[in-house]
Fold this sequence. Notes:
Blueprint: H1 12-31, E1 40-44, H2 46-55, E2 64-68, H3 75-78, E3 91-96, H4 104-116, E4 122-126, H5 135-150
Parallel strand pairs: 1-2, 2-3, 3-4
Amino acid sequence: xxxxxxxxxxxxxxxxxxxxxxxxxxxxxxxxxxxxxxxxxxxxxxxxxxxxxxxxxxxxxxxxxxxxxxxxxxxxxxxxxxxxxxxxxxxxxxxxxxxxxxxxxxxxxxxxxxxxxxxxxxxxxxxxxxxxxxxxxxxxxxxxxxxxxxxxx
Length: 153
């Protein structure tokens, strides 16, 4: 990966390998009786880019996607592979305004690309937060997750 503020070089083969590992974990949970529609994928920083790559291309509908202080990796290669099963995927995107590792502009750019693809991501920017997860962010995320998992109960 390149840590230049507005540019990321992606190991696409590595990303697909990691995505397949996450899909194996999802399949394991499905086998235990937890349907995909009850699974939320979440990640921070590089883990968030993996969550994007996995959730948006997953062949079964998921309960949600959480992308914290991250970016949409290799969008030119992923966007054409977005899954129709997750066309209505709820997405929580959050970023610290003082993030010097993954520029907030990358998080906002991901939201813009998702909107162009028909998604409705929720964008949250935390004013005094660096490349970290803050208390306010956790409170809002907790409410968002609770809402996702109580729908349809």
